[in-house]
Amino acid sequence: MLDAACLTIDEVLTARESGLPLTVVAVVDVSLGADVLLAPGDVTHVASLNGLRIGVEQTAVGAVMLDAALRAASLTATDVTVVYSAINEHEDFLKAGKIDAVVTYEPVKSRLLGTGMREVFSSAAIPGKIIDTIAVRADFAKDNPANVTALVKGFFVGRDAWVGSPASHSDRLGQILGLPATAVAASFDGLLLPDLAENRRWFAGAPSRIEGVVKDISEVLLMAGLLRRPADLQGIADGRFMG
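The structure assignment produced for this chain is given below.
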């Protein structure tokens, strides 16, 4: 039903494992603090999470964030209890006492910080490891290169419009995100939005930077049991559609 979508790297890899041939054609954003580990207000350091229950999405983002946070505190997964939970469950799980801390992101992040939760770790500590992408069916891209080029071009037009004048687009984006227009700009805090030139650098070289990140994420997924076998990275990224 779809030829392309905005997907995280783990979604691309799991789709490919299931037989869906996807290739990444652009980097949408890079998390530099947008993804966070939040804990009760009296928890001031990651090391204090020892023995607590942590809510985490069953995705690469959750796995990467939790692994990095625990490593920073010289803890292991056996020192905490991992409770898999989707983003829309994080607030309810905390209110119900099912979890003590959570790996989350906007718009849940701001709401939880407003309740007194404290940020004890963020993706700013692991730059370049958590990214969102535009992924396209490889067969569609092969048969319709002009369409994919137009898609990528359109994305950067939208990206540049937002970066150039956020206030002009906050009302519309607020409707999409379910946020007040005044809160839209803050929801992009901690996100780097690479422009066309930076994207070209991500896809340059052999192996490219994007391929290196995909390889790292695939290894995390494999260790976390989210992939059944080592990922086939052949054709995982294609920067030819940037013009």
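Interim note for the steering committee: The chain is about 40% helix and 20% strand. The chain has two domains: 4-32+128-233, 36-125.
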